[in-house]
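Possible regression after last week's pipeline update?

I re-ran a chain I had predicted before the update to compare outputs. Posting the input and the new output here so someone can diff against the archived version. Not blocking, just want to make sure nothing changed silently.
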Amino acid sequence: MAIAKGDYQSVMTHGWWITDAGGAAAPSEPTLTVTNDGDGDAVTCVVTGDDDATHTIYYRKVGAATWTEGSSDTGDATIAQAGLDDATFYWFICVASDGDYNSIPSVPVQVYVTDNSTTHTYEILAVLETELKGGEMVLLCTETVDT
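New output (post-update):
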């Protein structure tokens, strides 16, 4: 059974990410690239999305249960996100909002925040073995290493 990404997330978040704006159009899903700044507490997020939408970064430490609302900007933007912990893996997503309507989130991106200039970025390509949900699941990811 195929489940549409937006419908699944809208149901699982009790409508927080609205995908059907009742006749109005919700913003499109933004794209997100995140790189470590190399100072131990910040990253740079590059967002591409609707020109009139506000793009907000959400982040959480790997293994944490809740997302923290971060910085935001309108339209295509480069967004600085500071206040992170050194030597820590974080997940980042971006959500576009226009009025009362939110997009489905961008594809999650994982980055290791460190004061080292080497950046490891992980992008989820697929969730495998979903029958294991509730416990562990296998993720197919790509890794990009920038030095």
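Follow-up from reviewer: compared with the archived run. The chain is about 5% helix and 50% strand. Marking as no regression found.
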